[in-house]
Write a structure and sequence with these properties.
There is one protein chain. The protein has about 550 residues and is of the alpha/beta class. It has three domains: about 90 residues, Arginyl tRNA synthetase N-terminal domain (Gyrase A, domain 2, 2-Layer Sandwich), CATH 3.30.1360.70; about 180 residues, Rossmann fold; about 120 residues, Isoleucyl-tRNA Synthetase, Domain 1. About 50% of the residues lie in helices and about 10% in strands. A five-stranded parallel beta sheet has the order 7-6-5-11-12, sandwiched between helices. A four-stranded antiparallel beta sheet has the order 1-2-4-3. Strands 8-9-10 form a three-stranded antiparallel beta sheet. Helix 12 links the parallel strand 11 and strand 12. Helix 4 packs across helix 17 and helix 17 packs antiparallel against helix 18. The protein binds one RNA strand of 76 nucleotides through helix 6, strand 10, helix 16 and helix 18. One of its GO terms (molecular function) is arginine-tRNA ligase activity. It catalyses: tRNA(Arg) + L-arginine + ATP = L-arginyl-tRNA(Arg) + AMP + diphosphate. This is Arginine--tRNA ligase.
Length: about 550
RNA sequence: GCCUCCGUAGCUCAGUGGAUAGAGCGUCUGCCUCCGGAGCAGAAGGCCGUAGGUUCGAUUCCUAUCGGGGGCACCA
């Protein structure tokens, strides 16, 4: 019996009562999945529901009356030990120890599948994130989106969605000229031009191109430019891709902006927007009337000089996603693109989509380091690669996925570098490693998982009940995290599982304690049963860490 | 000026309208002859920025206000 089962049973009970005329409610008022939560206080049972307070008023009765009708039916469910009505109308449910303990076996048997849920079944999602300009290495500002975006992708997939991770390559426009000009300048020992890219990596790219083609140095700037422009960004993009691979972040599609322009997709997009009726011409430019859908000003698609704006590329890109069958287009953007949200949403609406259902823009707060923000142009870059070297992928990904995307993060590099146990990833990984170590010890004493030696009812210590309840909540946490695009909920829940595990470990022995004379007593049923619980915890920790892209070590 | 995010323990931060608001770090006190002490048990520490409103019930939703971050291009 887990919260999902209870919730479904509860919905059924209420619906039956409505059908029987005991409760006067329209059928559609009964939620499909009434909320079933773990009460904060153990005095309030194993699980509690507030459905009587939710529906009581609409049914024209006070919540306690409502609860009086429902509670006896809950009492009849298999695995329910007792039901109490408390306070203003909470229904508190206590399970049989056996019903709770059975979960240990369920989890072990489900293995990697435990935690998967149907929260997002049927969703076809395009998830665009990072999309850093290929004019420099990935730095700390991109790092958060890489970790979060990938974790969101994993969450959605675990919740049944079909997800495509996509990286939009800004390989079109003046910035590549500037980038190439910077490379050219470095190649000839000059300072980079005004507004160029001053970083050390530009030297390295210049050297790499020179190594490929020593003759390029003798060409004039105009002769060399096309080659520089192409190779410089390709080399940089390859570096970005390699860094992301190292970070365990993988994209399904690398989408080129310039291809949109070359293929005529931009012109076609403009035609389609025109056909939708939200465009006009003014002052020699071609505009999209985004103010029809909540933007604070209209946006130019074609400038008076006849060239498309960056936004025109965005329009074509959006339509490409739509044409490729993605119903949901999720954009993960940094706070510096905050001003973009309204126009992107309006763009979706101008293209005939629903701006609430078909597009979702997640804005993340920037990371600051010691109070100083980072800027590529200012040259004070902390590269992702350096961060990986300092901290390792696990610590970095975990600490980034541990906070909501809209929460500002401040990073103290010294603290991060210290790799001390104030980083919660060690706490969670340690619990996993410890459970594996305990399993090895149990193996050595022949305490292995055997179905006939598993007695769910023997897992009745308070620490076991607590641990089991945390494990039971895992699938709904994953589902809620997917729905809320909030990987940090998984991280926080893993921390609470780790805590419950450590407490259990302190209170309940898996292998029997040696006697005074050092001999080992024969294991009892409870020892075998605890082995199942231990391994179930291992499984949930591993599954949860996997969702965050963090490893689950056997030993530390 | 307009838009947006954030104000919760000394610090960094969780908290999907519910019961006594949580965790880590830091401080203090205990716990390994026994499965990993990177752990556990306990203590101290809060007018949830402020003021109204909605509700049976608000840290959570709405309005106002104060304080802090970010954004407001025919750039990309």
């Amino acid at each position: 019996m887990n919260p999902e089962n209870l919730s479904a049973a509860l919905a059924h009970i209420v619906r039956s009562a409505v059908d029987a005329g005991d409760i006067n409610l329209p059928a559609e008022a009964v939620p499909e999945a009434p909320r079933v939560e773990r009460p904060k206080s153990r005095d309030h049972g194993d699980w509690a529901t507030n459905i009587a307070m939710q529906l009581g008023k609409r049914a024209g009765m006070n919540p306690r009356q409502f609860a009086e009708i429902v509670a006896p039916k809950i009492q009849e469910l298999d695995g329910v030990a007792s039901v109490e009505i408390a306070g203003p109308g909470f229904i508190n449910i206590t399970l049989d120890a056996a019903a709770a303990g059975e979960l240990a076996r369920t989890i072990v048997e489900a293995g990697e599948a435990y935690g998967r849920n149907d929260q997002a079944v049927g969703d076809v999602v395009n998830l665009e994130f990072v999309s850093a300009n290929p004019t420099g290495p990935l730095h700390i500002g991109h790092t958060r989106w890489a970790a979060l975006g990938d974790a969101i992708s994993r969450l959605l997939r675990a919740s049944g969605a079909s997800v495509t991770n996509e990286y939009y390559i800004n390989d079109y426009g003046a910035q590549l000229e500037t980038f190439a000009a910077s490379v050219w300048a470095r190649m000839h020992g000059q300072d980079v031009p005004e507004g160029g890219y001053p970083g050390q990596y530009v030297h390295e790219i210049a050297d790499a191109i020179l190594a490929e083609d020593p003759t390029i140095k003798d060409k004039t700037y105009d002769e060399a430019l096309p080659q520089l422009r192409t190779r410089a960004y390709q080399i940089q993009l390859e570096d970005i891709r390699a860094t992301l691979d190292e970070f365990e972040v993988h994209f399904d599609v690398w989408f080129s902006e310039s291809k949109l322009h070359e293929d005529g997709a931009v012109e076609q997009a403009l035609e389609r927007l025109k056909a939708q009726g939200h465009t006009y011409e003014q002052d020699g430019a071609f505009w999209l009337r985004t103010t029809d859908f909540g933007d604070d000003k209209d946006r130019v698609l074609i400038k008076a000089d006849g060239k498309p704006t960056y936004f025109a590329g965005d329009a074509a890109y959006y339509l490409s996603k739509k044409d490729r069958g993605f119903e949901q287009k999720i954009y993960l953007l940094g706070a510096d693109h905050h001003g973009y949200v309204n126009r992107l949403r309006a763009l979706a609406a101008c293209a005939g989509d629903d701006m609430d259902d078909n597009i979702e823009v997640l804005i993340g707060q920037l990371i600051s380091v010691n109070g100083a923000r980072l800027s590529k142009r200012a040259g004070n870059i902390i590269e992702l690669r350096d961060l990986i070297d300092w901290l390792g992928v696990d610590a970095l990904r975990y600490s980034l996925a541990r906070y909501p995307n809209d929460s500002p993060m401040e990073i103290d590099p010294d603290l991060l570098r210290s790799q001390t146990n104030d980083n919660p990833v060690f706490y969670v990984q340690y619990a996993h490693a410890r459970s594996r170590s305990a399993a090895r010890t149990a193996d050595a004493q022949g305490i292995v998982r055997e179905v006939e030696k598993f007695d769910a009812a023997s897992l009745n210590h308070p620490a076991e009940e607590e641990l089991l309840s945390k494990l039971a909540q895992f699938p709904s946490v994953v589902g809620a995290a997917a729905k809320g695009r909030a990987p940090h909920r998984v991280a926080r829940h893993l921390e609470s599982i780790a805590a419950a595990y450590h407490q259990w470990y302190g209170a309940c022995r898996i292998v029997p304690a040696p006697a005074q004379d050092g001999t080992k007593p024969a294991p009892e049923t409870v020892n075998y049963s605890r082995r199942w619980l231990n391994d179930a915890t291992t499984q949930v920790l591993a599954n949860g860490l996997g969702l965050l892209g963090v490893s689950a070590p056997e030993k530390m």
